Amino acid sequence: MANIRNFCIIAHIDHGKSTLADRFLEITGTIEKRQMKAQYLDQLELERERGITIKMAPVRMTYKLTTNDQRPEAVNQKSSVVSRESSSSEYILNLIDTPGHPDFGYEVSRALEAVEGAILLVDGTQGIQAQTLSSFYAAKKSGLKIIGAVNKVDLFQQTRTETDITRTVSDIAQTGAESSRLDSVIEDLAYLIDCSPEEIHKISGKTGQGVRELLNDIVARVPSPQAYLEKSQQLSVSSRQLSVFSRALIFDSFYDDHKGIIASVRVFDGEFTQLEDVFLIAAREKFRVKEVGYFSPSLVAGKKLAEGEIGYLVTGIRLQRAQTSSFRFFLSGQSR
Length: 336
Fold this sequence. Notes:
- With 336 residues, the chain is of the alpha+beta class.
- The chain has 2 domains: 4-221, P-loop containing nucleotide triphosphate hydrolases (Rossmann fold), CATH 3.40.50; 232-335, Beta Barrel (Elongation Factor Tu (Ef-tu), domain 3).
- It has helices at residues 17-27, 45-50, 105-112, 130-141, 169-193, 211-221, 232-235, 239-242; strands at residues 4-11, 57-64, 74-76, 81-83, 90-97, 117-123, 145-151, 201-202, 245-256, 260-269, 271-273, 277-280, 285-288, 291-295, 299-302, 304-306, 310-314, 329-335.
- An 8-stranded antiparallel sheet has the order 13-12-18-9-10-17-14-15. The chain has a 6-stranded mixed sheet with strand order 2-5-1-6-7-8, with helices on both faces. A two-stranded antiparallel sheet has the order 3-4.
- The longest helix is centred in the middle third of the chain and has 25 residues, at 169-193.
- It is elongated and about 60 Å long.
- GO terms for molecular function: GTP binding; GTPase activity; ribosome binding.
């Protein structure tokens, strides 16, 4: 688990979450350039028509550090467990892109339960907005490591050429005002997160400026996953019984005509394999896992999903037998 980082991007609507996710996909080589398109993770037809994210989108990326910096000890705020950085330079980054519109706040809340860190993204031209605050407080309540980033800094930059001598005094004054505005947004975000302005990343999701440095910071500052046991009273299972089961959170689900309900999961304890019997707690439904795998962002089948990983399980359950909204935690029938 030491080389796994689970995180999401949270922000106000139109502050550039999906565009930033595009740059992550490019830098990590998850999507080839010839296949790349704007807002790649927004796959729903309605999302592409309206230009907004409606459904959360998970994706697994493999990333190699570009620096020799080694991370010091870090504390996992969810479990208060100290974890150490692995000597390996290759990391699995599990990203969940979330909606920014307040009508889809439930999607954000589910994503926050599945990760250890969050990028709080702010549009440098607009500053902190209502949904910025809402998402921040939700992430803080979940105990996530929050990394601040100000987007669209390319709009504040002007290429200087020899013709700049012809710029008027008013042009120069306007440039100074814009720079001051950007500094003000950075200071506001730093104050909100309670960090120094130097820790806020200045990025451009459009040009890719500062994005690689942001990825490096995610590796350095977001804790690796830790075994997490929810209070046994909430599950009506004793601690002794709970310890022998594999457990995962279903943070999303969707229906496939051929495979039935496919659950997007975060594994907290143990592992899940194909043909394993699993019990859904909320739905009181038992099923045998037809397939396991991860999002790349398309479905990629694998042998198992281990502790700390994010991926999917093909349940084979039809809508007549269970509603996707009833999914929450589930236990496997096999002991560890």
